[in-house]
Design brief:
Number of strands: 10
Number of helices: 15
Oligomer: single chain
CATH architecture: Alpha-Beta Barrel
Structural class: alpha/beta
Shape: globular
CATH class: Alpha Beta
Length: 353
């Protein structure tokens, strides 16, 4: 049985990476569109903000590349890392203003002037499988997820960082519910016919990334995968690309039904973030797509009222590859769709527990 967190009832939010360059403008856009559930933005294409506290890093600034050295070459770093983990020294894994000034800008804005509707703050780190796939071993170029020690380092490092983030935000903004997103956007590399991942190992890695968190946990995956892989994890929210993959996801209705009845929630990524797709869609066409997607789940046996109360409304993915104006439109559409769905099902943004 999952923890019984407050239900979103079609609350709207976004995915972290954005194209904005001015922090004040970025904060304003997010709070205007998602006052109930703002997210901490990521305003960089780099990954240094994910890695503070992680040992064995090899940073090549000339090639703009980060890899991981063989652990036996960094024994001192490795020992300190495990000592810090064992001691529960969360501050060692803090995301600092130096690497994530965009986090600080949003937290400061909310602390100083919290929106009256505020209930959640969504925070994105990295999924352990994703980060282990992105970071390569310096010795042979293979993903670090396939190296036992480096995989363990990344899982524990992510977990400690997320625990620090949860505590830090709750201290700065009392009463808010933090939602921790550990996206796993490359799972298809491991779960496709030609993939090289072991199901139990993948589920174990994902679950270990969430160990000790007391807040809702969130997995964003915009590829089409075997969705039972995620319904079998301990995540509280599964966010998928409902714009492109709702029909395929509904084939796993039995698994989603069990997941939702157990307290899980669905994030409908319904607003496209690919320029050509975004240009051809309207508010009404996207509402119709979402209604059709929900209907597909209901016809497959999921209780409509429970599904509706357990639903988030989100873009399909991050908006970082769009222009600022296009990103503005994505967020505005997401908010409008949320309002329409709440009206349809009799939900209001206030008193939404």
């Amino acid at each position: 049985m999952k923890n019984r967190f407050q239900k979103p009832k079609f609350a709207a939010s976004g995915i972290a990476a954005v194209p904005y360059r001015d922090k004040a403008h970025c904060v304003q856009v997010i709070l205007e569109n998602f006052p109930e559930a703002p997210f901490l933005p990521v305003m960089t294409r780099g990954i240094r903000w994910m890695l503070e506290g992680i040992p064995c890093l090899v940073i090549n600034r000339e090639k703009k590349r980060i890899t991981m050295a063989p652990p036996e070459e960094r024994e001192e770093e490795l020992l300190e890392f495990y000592d810090r983990v064992e001691q529960g020294d969360l501050n060692y894994f803090a995301t600092t203003p130096k690497t994530a000034p965009f986090y600080e800008a949003m937290i400061d804005a909310i602390r100083q002037n919290p929106p009256p509707e505020l209930k959640w703050i969504l925070v994105q780190s990295a999924g352990p499988v994703l980060l282990g796939d992105m970071l390569k071993q310096e010795a042979n170029g293979k993903p670090c997820i396939f190296h036992e020690t480096l995989r363990d380092v990344l899982i524990k490092g992510i977990n400690m960082k997320c625990k620090w983030l949860e505590i830090r935000i709750k201290e700065d903004i009392p009463g808010v519910e933090v939602v921790i997103d550990q996206p796993e956007t490359t799972l298809v590399n491991f779960t496709s016919a030609g993939g090289s991942g072991n199901r139990d190992d993948l589920i174990s890695a994902i679950n270990e990334g969430f160990v000790g968190l007391t807040c809702p946990t969130f997995i964003h995956c915009c590829a089409n995968i075997d969705w039972s892989l995620l319904t079998d994890t301990n995540a509280d929210v599964i966010n998928f690309d409902a714009y492109q993959h709702a029909v395929e996801a509904s084939l796993y209705a039995r698994e989603f039904r069990r997941f939702i009845e157990d307290g899980g929630m669905i994030g409908w990524g319904i607003v496209p973030v690919i320029e050509d797709l975004l240009e051809k869609e309207t508010f009404q066409s996207l509402v119709e797509k979402l209604e059709k997607a929900i209907d597909g789940f209901v016809k497959a046996g999921i209780d409509e009222e429970l599904l509706a109360s357990s639903s988030w409304v989100l873009p399909c993915c991050e908006t970082v590859l769009l222009t600022e104006d296009q990103s503005d439109r994505v967020f505005h559409l997401t908010r409008e769709i949320s309002e329409r769905m709440r009206s349809k099902y009799g939900f209001s943004s206030q008193g939404n527990g």
